[in-house]
Design brief:
Layout (H helix, E strand, L loop, with lengths): L1 E7 L3 H12 L4 E5 L6 H6 L1 H20 L14 H25 L3 E4 L1 E6 L2 E5 L5 E11 L3 E3 L12 E2 L1 H4 L8 E5 L3 H12 L3 E5 L11 H14 L2 E3 L2 E8 L4 E7 L6 E5 L1 E4 L3 E3 L6 H4 L3 E2 L2 E2 L12 E3 L10 H15 L13 E3 L4 E6 L2 H7 L3 E7 L4 H6 L5 E7 L5 E8 L2 H13 L4 H5 L10 H10 L7
Parallel strand pairs: 1-2, 1-6, 2-3, 6-19, 8-15, 9-10, 9-15, 10-11
Antiparallel strand pairs: 4-5, 5-6, 7-16, 12-13, 13-14, 17-18, 20-21, 21-24, 22-23, 23-24
Helix pairs in contact: 1-9, 3-4, 3-6
The protein binds flavin-adenine dinucleotide and 1,4-dihydronicotinamide adenine dinucleotide.
Enzyme class: oxidoreductase
GO molecular function, one term: dihydrolipoyl dehydrogenase (NADH) activity
Keywords: Disulfide bond, FAD, Flavoprotein, NAD, Nucleotide-binding, Oxidoreductase, Redox-active center
Length: 465
């Protein structure tokens, strides 16, 4: 069998690429080494983590939130196996959905590890060792990423866990130490804190969520502390001794100084992810890599003709929707169209409570680039719907160019921020101004009125503050 396109890896980058290519008439196959399609995101990432985040948020809402609304239901009882079943069922439905979509679009699926013996050829090695070689005009590598290891620390997924182990702990740990105050650490730390764990987050830098808007993160950290999460910032974990029943964690100030130790039942290592290229045969093929990432040009082409790469395995944010958009763009390019991704407008969401959502530049970015900007801010305490729902934490911040008024960045800390950010992304995609946002009619009473008010605040004319 000869194909127009073979995609290696069926995460959000790979499966979306394969479906779009098939829609455009390319004879397409996909190779996946896992037993199920959907990649990190659907199997061990976005989807299971959001199932647990939602369920644990409901648990906390019943424990501490409903009483204030006059709903008295008594102390909630945790049924962890049922919560885990909800997560597993959610994953199952999603990965089966992807298998259905691939079939519906007539994409041939091969379960096995893909490697590239030469341009135009993909070898698939099944679990039992059986090999077959497929011929193709083009190859898209979408093999994603894997957990970054802490030097000298062995992840056994029982006591010392990565995100994968943290998604399936058999019981709530008494004490959980999270290494890294990034997205995984704060999301999964929140899950287990809500379910009863004492959570301490140890972060190398002097701030949480590096790269996100600093003011937003500072307020967010205060909210997490109010919820009971402890932080040790400017500190690095230098060793983790697995005692079998738990762990002794040695922590040193990042700037040097005396070490201290903390006991933990479980340690979550969440210090980032690394591009995954193992077993593809890229070295022999001569594909250029830089810091582990596959090097591509602006059209996703590697230095080897006919071989392309997208998603976590290439530069840019490691986000599912970024991988998806790249998958669509390369499929369209291979079909002779003009696929394109606007890297200036990729939203990011931290699915904690409250959520953080952002798109575009932070104030720190704009200052570093010397761009003159105006900022408008509006707090949810002044929003009627937020008050009615008892979700008054946080604010919306709109950053607009001082001269042109074009919106350059929007940052939201608040309940439902991940949904609200979409209108900012659409606005920015169309090159909209804060005036455009301020003059767009927003339904009342909604949390998203705070977005409009923040846009009004850019010219100091917010109504409700
Ligand atoms: P992946 O999803 O990693 O898929 C790559 C696939 O390739 C895998 O299935 C792998 O088995 C397969 N593969 C690798 N090598 C081979 C080979 N040689 N042959 C065959 N198959 C191979 N992002 C968000 O945007 N939102 C979130 O809420 C979010 N939550 C996350 C939560 C967690 C706990 C984690 C770990 C990640 C989360 N992410 C989230 C990040 C997101 O999962 C990734 O950005 C996304 O999955 C990248 O997609 P991808 O297609 O590049 O690769
Ligand atoms: P991350 O890059 O977000 O955060 C890692 C943190 O660990 C950083 O703050 C870093 O300074 C810190 N760190 C590094 N080494 C350390 C050390 N030795 N000691 C203490 N701290 C240390 O990585 P994370 O959270 O593992 O997530 C990986 C990727 O997955 C991210 O790129 C993210 O985009 C993606 N993801 C996205 C989600 C979302 O969109 N909601 C959810 C989960 C993951």
């Amino acid at each position: 069998m000869s194909y127009d396109l073979i995609v290696i890896g069926s995460g959000p980058g790979g499966y979306v690429c394969a479906i779009r290519a098939a829609q455009l008439g390319l004879k397409t196959a996909i190779v996946e080494k896992r037993k199920t399609y959907g990649g990190t995101c659907l199997n061990i990432g976005c989807i299971p983590s959001k199932a647990l985040l939602h369920a644990s948020e409901m648990f906390e809402e019943v424990a501490h939130g409903l009483g204030k609304l006059g709903v008295s239901v008594g102390k909630p009882k945790l049924d962890l196996p049922a919560m885990m079943k909800h997560k597993d069922d959610t994953v199952g439905a999603n990965v089966q959905g992807v298998a259905f979509l691939l079939k519906k679009n007539k994409v041939d699926g091969f379960i096995g590890t893909g490697s590239i013996p030469a341009a135009g050829k993909v070898e698939v090695t099944a679990e039992d060792g059986a090999k077959q070689v497929l011929e193709t005009k083009n190859i898209v590598i979408a093999t994603g990423s894997d957990v970054a290891q802490l030097p000298g620390v062995t992840i056994d997924e029982q006591v010392v866990v990565s995100s994968t182990g943290a998604l399936e702990l058999p019981k709530v740990p008494g004490k959980l130490i999270v290494v890294g105050a990034g997205v995984i650490g704060l999301e999964l730390g929140s899950v287990w804190r809500r379910l009863g764990a004492e959570v301490t987050v140890v972060e190398f830098l002097d701030r949480i969520l590096p790269g996100l808007d600093l003011e937003t993160c500072k307020q967010f950290q205060r909210l997490l502390e109010k919820q009971g999460v402890k932080f040790q910032l400017g500190a690095k974990v230098s060793s983790v001794e697995n005692t079998g029943k738990g762990a002794k964690v040695t922590i040193e100030p990042a700037a040097g100084g005396a070490a201290s130790t903390l006991d933990a039942d479980v340690v979550l290592v969440a210090i980032g992810r690394r591009p995954y290229t193992q077993g593809l045969g890229l070295e022999a093929l001569g594909v250029a890599l830089e810091r582990g990432q596959i090097v591509i040009d602006s059209h996703f082409a590697t230095n080897v003709p006919g071989v392309y790469a997208i998603g976590d395995v290439v530069r840019g944010p490691m986000l599912a929707h970024k991988a998806e958009d790249e998958g669509i763009a390369i499929a369209e390019i291979l079909a002779g169209q003009h696929g394109h991704v606007n890297y200036e407008v990729i939203p990011g969401v931290v699915y904690t409570s409250p959520e953080i959502a952002c798109v575009g530049a932070t104030e720190e970015d704009l200052k570093a680039r010397g761009v003159a900007y105006k900022a408008g801010k509006f707090p949810f305490t002044a929003n009627g719907r937020a008050r009615a729902a008892n979700h008054t934490d946080g604010f919306v911040k709109v950053l607009a160019d001082a001269t042109t008024d074009r919106v350059l960045g929007v940052h939201i800390l608040g309940h439902g921020a991940g949904e609200m950010i979409a209108e900012a992304a659409v606005l920015m995609e169309f090159g909209g101004s804060s005036e455009d946002l301020a003059r767009t009619c927003h339904a009342h009473p909604t949390m998203s009125e705070a977005v409009k008010e923040a846009a009004l605040a850019v010219e100091k004319r917010a109504i409700h503050i």
